[in-house]
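Section 3.1 - Work completed
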Amino acid sequence: MKKEKKHGGKTAIQNNSLISAFKKKLKSVKKPEKKPKSIPKDRTKMIAVGVWTMIGTLVFFAFLAVLLSISNRSALNDLARQQEQNSKQKEEVSIVAGERFLSGFIEQYINVKNERSATEKRQNTLMKYLVVDDETDQETWFDTSGSQGDRVLNDYVLYNVKKGDGDSLFQYKVNYENVVKVKKKEHKVAKQALLNIPVKHKGDKFAVSGTPYLSEMYDLKGDIASSSEEREEYDGNQSAAIKEFLNTFFRKYAEESKEDMSYVMKTPETLNGHLVFGDVENIRIYKNGDGFEVSSVVVFREKETNLPVKERFTLTIVKNSGQYYVNQLKHQ
């Protein structure tokens, strides 16, 4: 009986050892670590920032394009104005240059001496002023055959210039005399006419393009109505004070210096004693915002001869610290 018990205990010990070994084996086996699941990042904010950045960039470039467009347009307008101004200046210079060009021509054309040698010299000189034209018999323009007397220029002055596209008609008022001899006695007949000279011009270069001709004088005065609007004159309680101020102001204007006038006017000017003050006539006062517009004729006089010199002025005046002050003075 004792031997069986010993054998059974041994078996139990072996079983326990196996179990213990198995447990150690299990512990020695590492469980695979679980990887955390990746959570997708929220890209909404990033996308929104990108979109707004793009919009901002587009707005900036659009604004920049508008500024550039305005700048370019302004530059083009300035250029156009400058070209127009240069063109106008060119026209003004051309009239002066054209008059200078024609001065010798007029003397040669009007003056005619009834002598063969003088006639040929006149014709050759005048031909130099003409446009180049091989198809027109220009020599006949200045033919004086059949003449029985002389023509003598006394004086001339530019009267008008009628402009065309590359062509102009220069008109001169000329005073001359026709001189004829009757029974060896010289007779003179004074005449006045308008000498018309067709001229072709290219820049500041000129040439006579047609036969000059005489015509009657015409009046340059036209019936042109004033463009000023009718306004109601001011007749309030400041009228008397304004009229008194005008007398004081123009007395100072005639006698005092610019420095003194700076106390009563914005842009000082003065006669500085060149003339003496006489009177203010034909005063018209109009309300103009917070101030007044005053039109008047001022009579000045020469010191030595008392000769009256009249001039029309328009003043824009305001009341400053209880005193009248001239903001603007216009000579009209």
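Second construct:
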Amino acid sequence: MRKKLSVTSKILIGMGIGLLLGSLINAFAANVAFIQDYVVNGFLYVVGAAFINALKMLVVPLVTFSLICGVCGIGDVGILGRVGLKAFLLYIATTGLAVAMAMVVAILIAPGKDFNRDISTATSTEFMVRQAPPVSDVLINIVPRNPVHAFAEGNMLQIIFFVIMFAIAMLMTGETGRQLADGAAKLNAVMMKVVTLVMDFAPIGVFCLMAKTFAEQGIDLIVPMIGYFGVVILCLLLHALGTFSLLLAILARLNPLLFIRKMRPAHIFAFSTASSNATIPVTMQVVEQRLGVDNSTAAFTIPLGATVNMDGTAIMQGVATVFIANVYQIDLGLGQYLTVIGMSILASIGTAGVPGVGLIMLAMVFNQVGLPVEGIALILGVDRLLDMLRTAVNVTGDATVTCIVAHGENSIDRQIYNDPNAGVITEIELPHKKERA
């Protein structure tokens, strides 16, 4: 009997076909009204947007129930605080490393030195200059004034804060809390089944997303921006394959090559959706079943990472700062470069993990160091493609920090991690993926 394709393989096939179809539409049917109205902005847009909404639909309930199970599974408030502090500091450190490395590489390669500037002022008006929020406001806004509003808006930092407080209260209420924890565990199991149902439609959703993106953007837009585009990709690869691999090998004594291989399903989803939040269900699935991290750790660190860990976005900001400074022939000093590092870290905390948010963050950074915000118009054309790659790096960072924290807390099953076939998702195995000794 022929072995069935895994869901991941089907998604890769859908991605490839979508890229090809989208490129053909862009090349030969860009001005065909019927194709644009009924295929690109009709079928592809509707199915792709519905798939993204389905993924986002999972995030809040899945994070809520998983986080309750994780806190109750840890059972000790002191351990919970230690896990949270480790994860937060690691996320901040990797973001700082990412933007610093990106600026060093960009300064050495110097993209934009010989760029022929022709900026559309109409496009630049899309970006209003925004002041970076004060640190005090960032800290205050972690605490929700209205938990219901936080859940409705999907404000992940506020949701995480409230759910942790609620779960700690459950631990302190004895038998009543244990009954609620059992209920949360059952609801979490049901939510994982919902994840399964949504993933069954993933190949179609990814196909539509890729086809629409390349039908609108095309590959030709990359050519005029090849210097900037290439440096960003180089830095993303250096960080994903270099920095994260070293951290895994040194801090967790784990095989980086096996890690990269097992992260493939999360990478595919992150690339196709360009949303860290939308990829949370898949990232948690991979980290727990493929990498062997216990739910008590993953349920806390993955949602936190999707909210505060923006390594890919920080890399874009570092390269874009040097690129725009070169284009406008503006000399930046050491103090301004350090400001970019600090701003990138600050802007990543509490920023929604959704497509395109990096450009708004970049406007804040440019305003802070005195670069013209209208320069963002130059990178608009290739940003959607880079956003997809940045998100893949972001979720890689989430999983890396989760594995390192799990190693420190002795909550990672190395036998599962070292098994190349552990947690492989197929149509037959998918309904039983949570059954683990």
